Amino acid sequence: MFPLIEDFYTLQGEGFHTGKAAYFLRLGGCDIGCYWCDSKISWQADFHKLISVEEVVEKAISYPAKSIVVTGGEPLTYDLNELCKSLKNNGIKTFIETSGSYELTGTWDWICLSPKKNAPPKEPILQKANELKVIIYEDSDYEWAEKYAKLVNKDCLLYLQPEWSRHKKITPEIVEYIKKDPKWKISIQAHKFMKIP
């Protein structure tokens, strides 16, 4: 059983898979406490109703995309092995968005690592991440991004994403940064511009 904040079928709005349809599962519980967090409702796990693995799988298989994005909160607060096993047994592709601050559990088709300064990622996930997505809120975040760009595996895609409340100011800065250092790409929260969940 997992604490469920919300679940919905929509288009992915950030990073490499932007524009693809997927079933989203947002789990409650996060002890990282980023001050700019856009889902602070996720911090307290016990505020949310529980959902079973069986319910998640039933919903996931009901949608045409046959893929799930597990996010939070911090989803790796929980052991996700049984969830992933059941999803895989039903032909569902698995995607996770995580800070990497907890041990990696589950079997994933795509790992989006979004490291946070308050709780840096554990070393093993750095070699497994498919995508590094660093949120840029202030100038020091670029140094943080460069640190982890050197630590992830050589095939990991590198993204800088403006923090939403400051995107009008930060986006032009990121554009200029990437023009000087094109190993990076920009990720924008397209779902917020489109006003979809």
Number of helices: 6
Largest sheet: spatial strand order: 3-1-2-4-5-6-7-8-9
Largest pleated sheet: 9 strands, mixed
What is the number of independent domains? 1
Walk me through this protein's architecture:
The chain has 197 residues and is α/β, with parallel strands linked by helices. The protein contains six helices and nine strands. It has helices at residues 53-61, 81-89, 123-126, 140-149, 167-180, 190-194; strands spanning 2-11, 21-27, 49-51, 67-71, 93-98, 110-113, 131-136, 157-162, 185-186. The two termini are 24 Å apart.
Blueprint of the fold:
Elements: E1 2-11, E2 21-27, E3 49-51, H1 53-61, E4 67-71, H2 81-89, E5 93-98, E6 110-113, H3 123-126, E7 131-136, H4 140-149, E8 157-162, H5 167-180, E9 185-186, H6 190-194
Parallel strand pairs: 2-4, 4-5, 5-6, 6-7, 7-8, 8-9
Antiparallel strand pairs: 1-2, 1-3
Task: Summarize the model shown.
This protein is of the alpha/beta class. 26% of the residues lie in helices and 25% in strands.
Descriptive labels:
single chain; 197 residues; alpha/beta; TIM Barrel; nine-stranded mixed sheet; 6 helices; 9 strands; 26% helix; globular
